[in-house]
Structure formats: C-alpha cells, structure tokens
Specification:
Radius of gyration of chain B: 24 Å
Helix content of chain B: 55-70%
Largest interface: B-C, 126 and 122 residues
CATH class of the largest domain in chain B: Mainly Alpha
Strand content of chain B: under 5%
Oligomer: heterotrimer
Shape of chain B: globular
Largest sheet of chain C: none
Largest sheet of chain B: 2 strands, antiparallel
Number of strands of chain B: 3
Number of domains of chain B: 2
CATH class of one domain in chain C: Mainly Alpha
Structural class of chain C: mainly alpha
Shape of chain C: globular
Strand content of chain C: under 5%
Distance between the termini of chain C: 45 Å
Chains: A alpha+beta (383), B mainly alpha (305), C mainly alpha (288)
Order of helices and strands of chain B: EHEEHHHHHHHHHHH
CATH superfamily of one domain in chain C: MetI-like
CATH architecture of the largest domain in chain B: Orthogonal Bundle
Chain lengths: 383, 305, 288
C-alpha cells in the first residue's frame, strides 16, 4: 500500500495533465517534473489550478487526461489510499474525535506498521508537541494544529509530501517561524515537498524551485532568484514582487543587446535577458534596482535613464521608501530605495531622473496588459 | 426553511464542491424507492379508490370495483362542504390564536432571555416538554378539567358567566381551544428561531432613528421575524385542518363540531365507504396544496429541507 | 397530532442556543416575562394533571380525585392490555427508528456530498410527506394496503411509521453532514484508509450525534403517532390507539403511569444532555 518509501523521496512527473470540471477547465496540458528530495513550490493566484494540481497528485481528483508518475511508477489510476503520498490540508483536517496521538498514528495503523504509537511520539517530538499528545484538536491553537497535521503526514515517510497553503491561517510571526521550521524539517527528513501557495514571499523563502502557475498552466519555473530577477512573462513579472514595465518597438540591436524606443527614450536590454528581439516588446526593471537622481546624469554606456519626471508619492515602510515618479508619455515608475539615511531623499513634486544598470533589465515574451494580474472573479469556487 | 430551519440552526455549514459518483445512486435508491412506494403510490391509490363504485353484482359492505366514478367527488363535496368549511375555519382561528399567543412567548425566550442562556435553554425545554407526553392524554386532561362537574365550569358558573346548564366540552370553543393549545409549541419554536437570530443592534438603530418602541416592533422586529411566522403558520394550519382528535366526541368535540378528519375517519372505519373517504382525502390534499404551493414558489429548493 | 410539526420542532433539541447580544432590562420586558410564565404554566397543566392523576386512588374511572395512592405505580403491569399496547409502541418505535435512521442517513449524505440529477424532484419528494395532513397519509396507505390485499397489523404499522420518519431523519442528519469538513474524510483517504475504513472510523463517529438526535426524534414521532396508525394497524394496538378507544369509557390509571414515566425519562435525558454539553463547553474553554 505505501509503495516505495525511499528516504530521499521520489520524483514526481505530471505528463499532459488536463482537468475539466462542468463549466470550466482548471488545467490544460500540464507537464511538470519535480526531482526527488527537493522543496518545490507551486505559486499562483486563486483559481489558477494549483490546488487542483495538488489534489490530482494526492488522488483526490482524477485527471480528465494525462498520466501521473511517482518514482517512475504510474499511479494515475491508484486511489488515494494506495499512493505513497500524504497531504497537509489547508484546514488541517485533524480528526476531531481522536486525540493528537491517534491522529498522528492513524496512517500507521491503516498500514499495519508495528510500533505505531512509538513512531507517532517520535513525529510529535520532531514538531515539539509530544507533551500535548493526549489532547483533542479542539484544545489546540491554530499553529499547534498545523504542526500536528504536519506530524501526521510526515510520520508515514511518504515519497511525496503535499502541502496545501498550510500557513494561510497563521499570523505573520508564526508563519515566518513555521516557514523556517518546515524548511529545516525537510532538510532533516529528506522528503520531497510540494508546497502550494499564493504567497510569493513564502514560496521564495522556502523553495528550491518555484513554478508560477496561471490559469491552469505553468508560466515559468526555476530557482526563486532566477524567477525574480529574470521573469519571462508579464504575469510572473507582476505576481512575483513588483515590476516597472514599458512597451515599445525594437529599433536596433547589437550582438549583446536590443534597443527599445519608449516614448522617445532609447532603453537597452541585454540580448540574453530578452525573450523577444524584434517588433513590439515589453521590457522591465525591478523597482529596487532603480536609482533616483535629482539632476540629469551624463549619458554612460551600460546605464539606462528615464526622465525627467515628477515625484507624485512618497511612502515610508520601515526598511525602504517607495517613490512614485510620473514621467510624461511613459507613465508611473515605482522606485524602492533602502532607507540609508533618515527621511526621504526627495520630496513630492521634485523633478527627478531614474537610472539603472542595463544588465538589470529584462524583456518579456508577452505584452503587459495581455494577461491581467487578476482574473475577473466568476466565483467558480475552484482554487 | 420552514421545516428544516430549526433542526440545527447554529451549526456552521462548510461549503464544499460536490462530486459526481455512482455511490450517490446506491445511497439514494433505498430511501427514495421506499418513499415512492409508501408515499407516492398511496396517493395514487387514494385517487384510484376515490373513483371506485360499489360492486352491484356481489354487493357487500366494503366491496368496490374499479371504476371511473367522478360522481363520488360531487356527492362528497355536496354532502360535506359545510364540514370542509368548518375545518378550515377552526384551523384558521386556531392558527391566528396560536400566533397571537406564541409570538410574545417566542419574543421573551428569543430576545429577552438572551442574557441568561441557561434560563433560555430551560424555557425551551418547557416549550418542548408537551411532546414528551401523548397528546391524547393531554387532550383528555383538558376534557376532565373543563368537564361539567369540574373546577373551571363550576368557577365560571359561580361568577354567573355561564348558565346553570351550560357546558364547555363539545363546543366549537373547546375544539379550537384544544387545537390552539396543541399547536402553540409549533408556532412558538419557529418564531423563536427567527427572533433568536435577530441582531439587537438593529433595534437600537431604530431607536436611534427616532422610532418609538411600537414603531420599532412593527417596522423592524416583526418583518425580520416573518420567516419564522410563515413557518409556524404552515406548521400549524396544515395539520390543524386534518385533525380529528380534538373534534371527536370522546375528546373535546361533539357531533356539532365534526371536522373533515372525522368524516374521513368515520366513512373509512364505520361505513367502510372507502371511495368517499378517499375522495375527501384528495379534496383535503388539494386544498392544502394551495398554501403549500405558494410557500414552495417563494422558497428555493435548497432551503426546503 | 401532526408528526410534521412535532418532528420539525423536536429536531430543535440538537443545538443549545447561543446569544448574539444581551438586551438591557426594560419595564416592557417584565410584562412579557410575566405573560410568558403564565403561558408556560398553561402548557404544562395537562401534563401535571396526567402525572397527578397517576397517583389517584384506583377505582373504575379516573376522572375525580379520590386521594393520593401509589397503587397504580405498584400495579403498573397488572392491566395486560395497557402493557401490551405500551410494549407494542416501543417495539414499533425501535423498529421504525432503526430503518428510518439508516435510510435517512444515506439520503442525507448523498444530498450534501454528491452531485446528481433530479435534485429538485427528490427534495420535493422528501418535503411533501411533512406537508401532507396525517389523515391523507394514513388513509392513503390504508387504501393501498387494502388494494394490494395485505393484512393490516404490526408490519404495516412499522412500514407506515418508517415512511413519515424518513424526512425528519434527513433534515436532522443533513445539517450534521453539512457541518463536517469534507477535508477530514479526504485526510482519511490520504492516510491510507480504504473507503470502508473512512466510513467506520471517521464519518460515522462524527455523524453519530446527529444520527442519535434523528433517532430520538424518530422514536418520539412514532411513539406518539395516532392518526396514521389508526388507518394502517388493523387490530394491532399501539399505546395511543389504546388510549383513543379507551377514552370512550375510562382510561385506567396505569396509562397515566406509563405516560408519566416516559415524560420524566425524556425530561431527564434532555436536561442531562444540555448540562453535559454546557460542561463540555466550559471544559474546552478552560483548557483551550
């Protein structure tokens, strides 16, 4: 029943997965491989199909088309209780009529493992809740319930551990703590984790690999830094952090870069950081990579400059200050500046220029505005 | 909402997508088949029976042949329409009386007693308590209390409210009294349910906006408790029309207070006149379906149960 | 008496009320309080009468009070007909409750957890028995048995009782199923439990309070039913039926005793469940 219980987890392969519900398609032709032993995050907004993907892997839904392979074995037709997969549910789903200990030992009992209670105690010690083993779930706080749900899944040493937005209901401080704990447990135990979330900070903090999902498809996948610094689509550029995006025509190109005309200004983007090299393209740069200047800088190679513009808003947020700069014909540019000194570096109404190193820019495969950040909410209820 | 509303009013409902599965068929089949056989089929049976005619060849009491004698309906309606009218009249009066009596009670328990949850639970238990004793015995108790030799009649005669030979049992008053008494809990509980969920801040808002207590009641409280009032009314009126215990001579009634339930029962048991009994049942059912139909048209199917 | 109304109302016992906000004490409230106490007393008068008269000195009729005596209670089992009727009602109640609970629970689960066609028609079919006058239900089934040629007796009585109990079971259990997070059952499947194990170890234990409430409701409806029973029982005698026929002449005081016992038992059970629920809540609040 449990299948391969390799201590280093197993590969997960989704091949051509499509899932249709009456009225809409949640996932269309999804292909995904997750290497054994990694911490993989599936990131996306509500309704993008990430939870559906998770449920397909767990066996709680069956795909309309496609195959699912765990450790090389085809499990598409296997029922949930036949798969070597365990899930930590968003609502924790602890059995209210059993004690914490029985909850954790449940899977062990079903599998006929010897010493179920001893193993359950061990798992509870791992999450530091062994002293509450005799309590009922209703007597625990949200954070404690979440840890019990985790122990209940981990104790079975599954090939693949699925986490469905498990930290959503926790307050900020507890969430940060749990993020680190989850990461360290995964390191210790060596299982393959598939973590589904809409919180991009969480995904980037915890995961080795992040896949950004939108409307049933994976838009981009890779290490968090890679995704962040080199987004390939407007959706990824806007969903992960913030971006300043500009659309214009490619007017010339060299061996190493392309030049795009944005409302009269020529902006350079390195060739290997641009997905498209001709026609109308959208290019972008992260707000924290921009420098604010109060005087027009001299042209320098390797530096893009936009301006002059007017500072329309200054927002202090502790670590940094966000400035909004309105540049005529271009639009509003967001700048994040680390607060190295007290107070803002420019005031509202000031005339400024923004500049950034050419190497920090990126070019998207699609145009901004083609994929909106949020789909209109038609309330289909399928996350 | 009416009938299911107060089975578990406070439990949170977890929204969950439903799945399509063959299991649903097997879960539903036994119960639905059973209801089909024991509820729907009998209704058809009633219709068929109501159209039967006496067996003139092998004539005997209780022998009938399949026929299509719609005349049965004409006969039955012609003979018993005053009783049908009376049944609806009694039921209507009892319903209104129950409403007037129960509303303040429901208000007390649902609004005033909110500060004392233990007393509230206790009061509710007292309202429900009558169900734990056979309603036949309770009705007989009233019959004894209001007997000619009993305390109530004696007291009223002493005050010269009643004449020397007057009696209370067997009068329409007594039948309606019995009906009303029996249905007070059925009227009070749904209204209580509605009022218990009433957000008292709305009443405060009313007062803040210059409404006096009477105004606040008629314009805020009453309309918001309307679903409960509708439920209670249906729960009282429908059974009351078909009741025949209260109106029986051996309980609170007399031969002057016969209701349609009595006729259906008498023609069935004493006369073995099954076609007439069935015809009357169908007539009653159809008449009842009018208020029920109105209720159904106003309610979403999901809220029915 | 209408099973419909009784059932709908008894179902209320499942949950204790929780206050939303406490009203301030006002003079008008005292008036309503006094009135309500009067009404509550009135509601209980016939019950008190019945219980009191169970202690009457035995004689041929039990209409006038002769004095206090425990004889009726001591000779509870002396009148065979009363005992038989009482036992019959219990038997029918238990049998009908078991079957109605099983059928109704299955329907309730299907209603909440699954998608299927004809949902509207089905809901209507479950709703209508509650909205049909009892004489119609009774004479309908009576006619049906007649037409088929089935002898009326205990079997037909149980069949009829199951019929009118199903809808109430569905309502009560359905609410309980709806309050159950489906993720809990999914967690069971995820943790290697077969569908059978998920039912017995997870779903059924969690549904049990609702099923028990539905069973109690069912039993109460069945035990107190008269009108429908009259049409379908033939010569078989249940407790209410016995009282009805005996009412013509005189009801032996043993009937009062039986009724009093049931009443007091029911009150004790309800009070006990309320107090234990309150105690559990207090305990959870303390520890959690």
């Amino acid at each position: 029943m449990a299948g391969a219980l390799d201590d280093s987890g197993a590969d997960l392969e989704l091949v051509g997965i499509t899932k249709r519900f009456p009225g809409f398609t949640a996932i269309e032709n999804l292909n995904l491989t997750i290497p054994a032993g990694s911490f993989f995050a599936l990131l996306g907004p509500s309704g993008c199909g990430k939870t559906t993907t998770l449920r397909l892997v767990a066996g709680l839904e069956t795909p309309t088309a496609g195959r699912i392979l765990i450790g090389g074995k085809d499990v598409t037709d296997a029922k949930p209780h036949q798969r070597p997969v365990n899930t930590v549910f968003q609502s924790y789903a602890l059995f209210p009529h059993m004690t914490v200990l029985r909850n954790v030992a449940f899977g062990l009992y079903r599998r006929g493992v010897s010493n179920p209670l001893a193993l359950a105690h061990e798992a509870l010690r791992l999450v530091e809740l062994d002293h509450l083993a005799g309590r009922r779930p209703a007597q625990l706080s949200g954070g404690q319930q979440q840890r019990v749900a985790l122990a209940r899944a981990i104790v079975n040493k599954p090939a693949l551990l699925l986490l469905d937005e498990p930290l959503g209901a926790l307050d900020l401080k507890l969430r940060r703590q749990m993020q680190l704990e989850l990461k360290s447990i995964q390191d210790d135990v060596g299982l393959t984790f598939l973590h589904v979330t809409h919180d991009q900070e969480e995904a980037m903090t915890m995961a080795d690999t992040v896949a950004v999902m939108n409307r049933g498809e994976i838009e981009q996948m890779g290490a968090p830094e890679e995704l962040y610094e080199l987004p390939k689509t407007a959706f990824v550029a806007n969903f992960l952090g913030q971006s300043n995006l500009f659309t214009g025509n490619v007017v010339s190109s060299t061996a190493t870069s392309i030049v795009v005309d944005i409302a009269g200004t020529k902006l350079e983007v390195p060739r290997d950081r641009a997905q498209r090299h001709s026609g109308v393209v959208t290019i972008g740069v992260r707000p924290e990579k921009l420098t604010l200047l109060t005087a027009k800088p001299a042209s320098a190679s390797g530096v893009n400059v936009l301006g002059p513009g007017t500072v329309t808003d200054v927002s202090f947020s502790g670590v940094s200050t966000q400035y909004l700069v309105e540049v005529p014909s271009v639009g509003t540019i967001t700048v994040f500046a680390q607060n190295m000194v007290f107070g803002p570096v420019v005031n509202r109404g000031s005339e400024v220029w923004v500049s950034w190193t050419v190497d920090h820019g990126f070019g998207l495969a699609d145009e901004q505005g083609v994929s909106p950040r949020f789909d209109p909410d038609d309330g289909t209820g399928e996350p | 909402m009416a009938f299911g509303a107060f089975s578990n009013v406070d439990a949170p409902v977890v929204e969950a997508p439903r799945r399509r599965s063959r299991a649903a068929f097997w879960l539903l089949l036994p119960g639905i088949a059973y209801l089909g056989a024991t509820y729907l089929a009998p209704l058809v049976s009633l219709i068929i029976t109501s159209l039967k005619a006496p067996d003139l060849v092998n004539y005997d009491i209780g022998r009938y042949l399949y026929a299509f004698d719609i005349g049965n309906y004409a006969t039955v309606l012609g003979e018993y329409w005053p009783i049908i009218l009376r049944s609806f009249e009694y039921a209507a009066i009892a319903t209104v009386a129950a409403l007037l009596i129960s509303y303040p009670l429901a208000y007390f328990i649902g609004v005033v007693l909110r500060r004392y949850p233990l007393w509230q639970a206790l009061a509710l238990i007292l309202v429900i308590a009558p169900f734990f004793m056979s309603f036949l015995l309770r009705t007989l108790a009233w019959k004894a209390i209001f007997a000619d030799e009993g305390p109530v009649v004696g007291f009223l005669q002493h005050l010269n409210i009643l004449g020397a030979n007057a009696h209370l049992n067997g009068t329409p008053f007594m039948v309606i009294f019995g009906l009303t008494y029996n249905f007070i809990p059925f009227m009070a509980l749904p209204i209580y349910t509605s009022l218990e969920r009433l957000d008292l801040r709305l009443l405060e808002a009313g007062a803040d906006l210059y409404a006096n207590p009477a105004s606040t009641f008629f314009r805020v409280t009453l309309p918001l408790s309307l679903p409960g009032v509708v439920s209670g009314t249906l729960l009282t009126f429908i059974p009351a029309t078909g009741d025949y215990v209260n109106a029986s001579p051996q309980f609170l009634g007399s031969t002057q207070t016969t209701m349609i339930g009595n006729v259906i029962s008498d023609t069935y048991f004493n006369l073995s006149d099954y076609p007439s009994s069935a015809a009357l049942s169908i007539v009653l059912m159809v008449l009842i379906l009018i208020p029920v139909g109105i209720y159904l048209s106003l309610t979403k199917t999901e809220d029915l149960l | 008496m209408s099973g419909l109304a009784e059932g709908a109302v008894l179902g209320r016992l499942e949950e204790a009320p929780r206050p939303l906000k406490r009203p301030k004490a006002r003079r008008g409230n005292w008036g309503v309080a006094f009135y309500s106490i009067v009404i509550l007393v009135l509601l209980l008068i016939p019950i008190g009468y019945t219980i009191v008269f169970s202690f009457n000195i035995p004689a041929r009729t039990n209409v006038s009070w002769r004095g206090f005596s425990l004889d009726n209670w001591a000779t509870l089992l002396s009148d065979p007909r009363v005992v038989a009727a009482f036992g019959s009602s219990i038997l029918v109640g238990v049998a009908a409750t078991l079957v109605a609970a099983a059928l109704g629970t299955a329907i309730a689960i299907a209603l909440v957890r699954f998608r299927f066609r004809f949902r509207t028609g089905l809901t209507l079919l479950l709703f209508l028995p509650m909205a049909t006058p009892e004489v119609v239900l009774g004479s309908g089934l009576g006619s049906q048995f007649l037409n088929i040629g089935v002898d009326k007796g205990i079997a037909t009585t149980i069949i009829a009782h199951i019929m009118f109990c199903i809808s109430f079971v569905v309502i009560t259990v359905r609410a309980r199923v709806a309050s159950l997070d489906p993720a809990i059952e999914e967690a069971g499947r995820d943790l290697y439990a077969t569908p059978g194990q998920v039912w017995w170890r997870i779903t059924f234990p969690l549904l049990l309070p609702g099923i028990v409430a539905a069973a109690l409701l069912s039993f109460a409806l069945s035990f107190d039913d008269f009108i429908i029973t009259a049409f379908v029982s033939g010569n078989f005698e249940t407790f209410p039926k016995y009282i009805y026929t005996a009412a013509v002449r005189a009801i032996p005081a043993q009937a009062n005793v039986f009724a009093s016992i049931i009443f007091l038992l029911a009150i004790v059970v309800v009070l006990a469940s309320q107090f234990s629920a309150a105690a559990r809540r207090r305990q959870l609040a303390r520890e959690g």
